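Reviewers of the previous submission asked for a worked example of the structure-prediction workflow described in the proposal, so we include one complete record here. The input consisted solely of the amino acid sequence. No template or homolog information was supplied to the procedure at any stage.
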Amino acid sequence: AYTPLREAFRDQDANEYRHRNVAKLMYIHMLGYPTHFGQMETLKLIAATGFAEKRIGYLGLMILLDERQEVLMLVTNSVKMDMNHKNPYIAGLAMAALGNICSAEMARDLAPDVERIMENGSPYLRKKAALCAIRIIKKVPDMMESFVERAATLLKAADGAVQLAGVSLMLQIVELDPTQVDMYRPHVPALCQLLKRLLQPGGAPADYDVSGIANPFLQVKLLRLLRHLGRGHAEASDQMSDILAQVASNIDASRNAGNAVLYETVQTIMGVESIGGLRVLAVNTLGKFLANRDNNMRYVALNTLAKVVAVDTQAVQRHRATIVECVKDADVSIRRRALELVYGLVNEGNIRALTRELLDYLAVCDAEFKPDLTSKIATLIQRFAPDKRWHIDNLLQVMTQAGSYVKEEVCRALIVLITNAPDLHAYAVRAMYRNLHAYQDVADTSLLITSLWCVGEFGEMLVAGSGVPLLEGEPAVSCSDRDIVDLVATVLAKKAADVVVREYALTAAMKLTARLPGQVPRLQALLARFNRSAALEVQSRSSEYTRMFKLAPPMRAQLLERMPALDEAEYLRNMGAEVRPSVPSTGGAAAAPATSSAAASAGGAAAAAGGDLLGDLGDALAPASTSAPAAAGGLDDLLAVGPVGASAGGVAADVLDLLDGGSKEPPAPPAPPPEPVSFPPAVVFQGATGVAIRFAFHKPGGKDSGVTEITATYANAGPAAVTDFNVQAAVPKFMQLRLEPASGTTLPGQGAGAVVQKVYVNNSQHGVKALAMRLRISYKDATGSPVVEQTEVTAFPAGC
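From that input alone, the workflow returned the following structure tokens.
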């Protein structure tokens, strides 16, 4: 197939057909065959005088060659001559080739000609020259300075194509060198005026209309350039706010070109320092995209909303129902993007409603979508559960509907949560028993192991007459100790049960021997049945548990005591999960209310976790009991007026005196108690809504004591009262913190009243490291909307 072409290229008499042969060669190249033997023919066509030959020659140059080939250097002089040709179409061919394949060497040689044509050429050539300049500054960034000012002059051209090329060049310059943004910011009014002219009827020639939208390509480029110029600059953003609102309000969204302009407008509004009303307009535009039947439009809207939600969550929340509906879409890409967006929308205020909708969809969604959805729901429940009872109920529902997709870490975290909620032990085991009894034939591993663990730990609370009352709205469970053992035996008898499930079941059976004394013989026989199991761990547990019956009953009872509660904050931190503030066991109480004795004290949790809360703390504070752990020296020592450990020292001295048989020298008189020290009060927080916090500092143990007593006064200078006021605190791990109950949870408006709370801090490194504290303030404003604010307190008085 190549032979006739080779012969034609060698035939000197066939010059008039050379451009046809090169066209055939390009077709062969596009089919994937080698065509290197004919590359020089394109150079001959470029050197020809006719337009038809040059057109094929330059087309062959762009298709058959690239910038890496040395033969390209041979054509530089021809391109230079053609750029200065009197025929503008030949000059246009040369610049089209230069803009596509020029190398760095060609860019340096031909840049002066490009600059000259940008200033003095016809609109057709100025457009081509600006596009060449884009290629030149990409290849040789050092030459950018030559085009910075010239690019801006193209905005004054009357031709829309020249304006588009100029804006494209300006956009490329600011993308390659962000420092040039300051050079172009004075042109923001001109750019806005140009965009405004395009919005007016007849603002652009009809040749540039696309589906009734005036020059949408120029509009998109202008909006993109404005986004770069307004980012981080309030004045420039203010200059463009009016035109952005006009574009968002006046563009026809029924056409694809109009949607492209609207999408770019939304991106620009969210990218500059725009006001809140403009952001709401942008989010509402994306909401219209969500209602579009075109999946591409919906995907674009979801993708953009996922970025916007971090900037303006409240505006996105208005479209929550539409977004949740997208989770049920037939298109898997729409479903996944919608799920990611829902994940970002969830907070403490809407967790109940969104979880209910997601659980409803979990029951009917496709199998391939269940793993991702299950993981997201479980994570949301762990992060935002309003109370522990709701947490248990909803995770149980997830395990019931999609238990095979629930990760083992979720089951472990649930067990840790239950162990740390003594008032929910009976409720949890009853809920587990009901679910396991109802779904024992189809239950998956996650539900089985969690339920068996609870039954083994708290099984005696299931028996009628155990004296544990039901919680509000909880259905009664009627079962005997025999029913409990029957359920464990049923699980052990399941042929399809995993080895892990049998291990949990055997452990539960052994634990029940201490909880249900009347069923010990039956449980012993049940355990002995697996002495010859093929699974080594099952056989080992069965044998070891059977041997435990030979121990004395008191010793066996000691071995089968309930598992001690793990530190929940430490466990979550070790697992890489978010450490949340303490939440109530049921929905009847607020999370760590200011009036509750269980006020948040992060010092104990920090000490247990071994982590620096001020370094690790994100949005959540690690709570702890108001009572300090015994290892910390006791709360009485912590809050004692004298130095910590003074009492212990006195006892030790008395013991030494007894053993010494009496000292001849009289004991030294006790040192006088140190004088208390007070410090001037300071305002440590001033919220945007008028809420303020003032600390008054007092050291009852003197200036050398590490104990500081802080009197916190909460006031509200706003016009309306705030309710459900709650303050949580965190300190570094070398400190201990205790919050006394506050005097109220409502702050009257206009400073008409205040709430007072005592805070005690023990700094174990007093004199070495200063006090530091982080506060998390939450309340509901006059409209009932929840408000959460955080502040870090470092301005403690010297010596405090």
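The two ends are 93 Å apart (CA to CA). We consider this example representative of the routine output the project will generate in years two and three.
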